[in-house]
Batch of 2 targets.
Target 1
Amino acid sequence: MLGHLSVVGALSWNHCILSSGSRLGRVYHHDVRVAQHQVGTLHHKQAVCALKWSLDGRLLSSGCSDGLLTIWPHDPGANVQSQPLKVITQTTAVKAMEWCPWQSEVLAVGGGMKDGRLHILDINSGKSIQAPSTNSQICSLIWLPKTKEIATGQGTPKNDVIVWTCPALSRSGGFFGHRGRVLHLALSPDQTRVFSAAADGTASVWNCYQSSSPSKPQHAHF
């Protein structure tokens, strides 16, 4: 699907709509069912680092390199005049974020190297409910609905995956072994395994229920 004039750094699905964000600050909505697939555009001033549709498809969150986290309403036909519902300023680029599966108004956001905190945001108020420090850049994160936990993929110095209990946000374990920043995390359909991909060129699959003790990957490949 053509359209972007620069690197596409973020994607998110909402049923038949695929939203894509570029380094030039454009978000395009693509309806994959039709040939004229571009059905909407959102504009940012800086590069789009992250995109996430909420589970119910009502809200789209976008994170940019200038530290702005923007919440948009569902409107695949959006044009240049479209206005966001809310803009929340963060101290670093917004690259890691995920909507809470069991609290629709809660968004988890990972802080960059200058911040290093896991921010649990109430998007109604735009304030952090909790913000524990990880002492590291947060490059990725996912919620673990079965165990009511959240996993964060870290950068330097340890390049590990930390698992946090909810709502206390105390460390309950982790997955260790990557030698580069953990850039991507994904949850298996049965919610029992975590997939991680790192800047060292490796990908691993971890058993969620072994996170309370130092864990080795069940499978790794490159």
Note: Residues 218-222 have pLDDT under 50 and may be disordered.
Target 2
Amino acid sequence: MELWQAMVLGGFYWFSFLGFFPHSINLLFYQPLTASLLVGLVMGDVPTAMIVGATIQPMFLGQTQAGWVITNDNSAAGIITASVVIASGMDIESAMAVAVAVGLVMSQLTNVRMTVGSFWNALTDKFIKNRQYNKLWLSTIIYPSLFKIVLYWIPMSLVLYFGASNIGFFVDGLPEWLQNGLGALASLMPIVGLCIVASSIGKKGYMPFFIGGFVFAAYSGLSGIGIAVAAVMLAWFDFRCQNKGEHLSINLKSTVSESAILGKEI
């Protein structure tokens, strides 16, 4: 990997933690699929990067956190894994194992940021107490952003520049039983993520959509784009029905009741 590529990708990693945008935008940049896309654009291999991103994205669907204690670093998993696959030609199964390890290790940087963040809070309180409101932008924007350069940008750039090509050889040198174990663990994580997402839907009435969509995707033979378009149209139709008080299940029930009443009248 070239130095400028490592610097650009390290800058994206830093950018994903800035938090200057709405929460939904921040989450978008934090996802492995988005991070992998940028890796592909920078390294000139978008198809491979998107395959890596789509493979490891389900692994992080069920990620939860308590009190802002981050257990996995999604952005680092996408950037480093996609870079390693493109630079060293690692297979996807081994890449999934790398994503698990990278996500766990790099998450400790965020825990460090949370600890140091208490200092910026104290400095903000000091400025407010002294009525130095013109300095609040220093403790809330400038100082935290500069610290994140040291915490995120520089380490990520160094890891990519010196290790993107070597991690693949390191993983290939692991014992076969350990590689198989990591591969099995990585294969289970997408299933766990999907199950957690399914259980968090909250409405039992939506489970038929989930199961039907899975069966449709497995046996229809359509591409991902076709399935996505069909899902969007179905979601739009159901949304319109609910807004009009005409939910599909309610319609069916009312239709049966009206038919019974008409039958009695006849």
Note: Residues 3-200 form one domain.
